Amino acid sequence: MRGHAHLVGSYRPGSSPLHRMPLRTKLPLLLGLGTVSLAVQGMLPRTLLLLAVLILHFAAGAGWRRLLSPLKPMWLFLLVLAAYHWWQHGPGSAWQILAGLLACVYAANILLATTPVQCLLDALVAAVRPLQRFGADPERFALAIGLMLRSIPFLVGSFADVREAAKARGLERNPRALVMPALIGTVAYARQTGDALAARGLGDKDDGGQQAEKG
Fold this sequence. Notes:
Layout: H1 17-20, H2 23-39, H3 43-59, H4 75-89, H5 91-114, H6 117-128, H7 138-168, H8 175-199, H9 205-214
Helix pairs in contact: 2-3, 2-5, 3-5, 4-5, 6-7, 7-8
Organism: Arthrobacter mobilis
GO cellular component, one term: plasma membrane
Protein name: Energy-coupling factor transporter transmembrane protein EcfT
């Protein structure tokens, strides 16, 4: 199956300043840039924020070839959105919307590209841990996020592979030829994931507690 990690970003080892920056500094920086780029109004401020994010993109060791990767799954959405705002409010409004969205997308991509997934999951566990008193399970929450980050590229890649296979057989317009193989692959992937979790003893905690209560 082809790689689709660009849909949610992928860690790329490196020695750039952003790779070495602690997560407690990097996360507020990138989150702040993304948030402010949507909150601030005006074409010039949003353009400057986008330029700042792009500077960080290159500072992280990502070249021009990596610049378009995050946009591949959403280029049509961005095009339609920009065309609508251009038609309704003019080119200035269209660029403001695009600049804000692109700054958010690149900020998120920089975070994922310069931070190992395990470090992000550890930070999520630490953030959720205070909620344990309300019944939250930080470890399972991190596990769910990790499964999501792994599953999205797989499922999208599975559908793309099925579509290409159907096209090779001349069945690209047959809904059944597209939906059924993708659905079967999704169910199989879910079962394999469930079996892998069960083999590691995950999900047995509650069952064990219930059996103890019955005993």
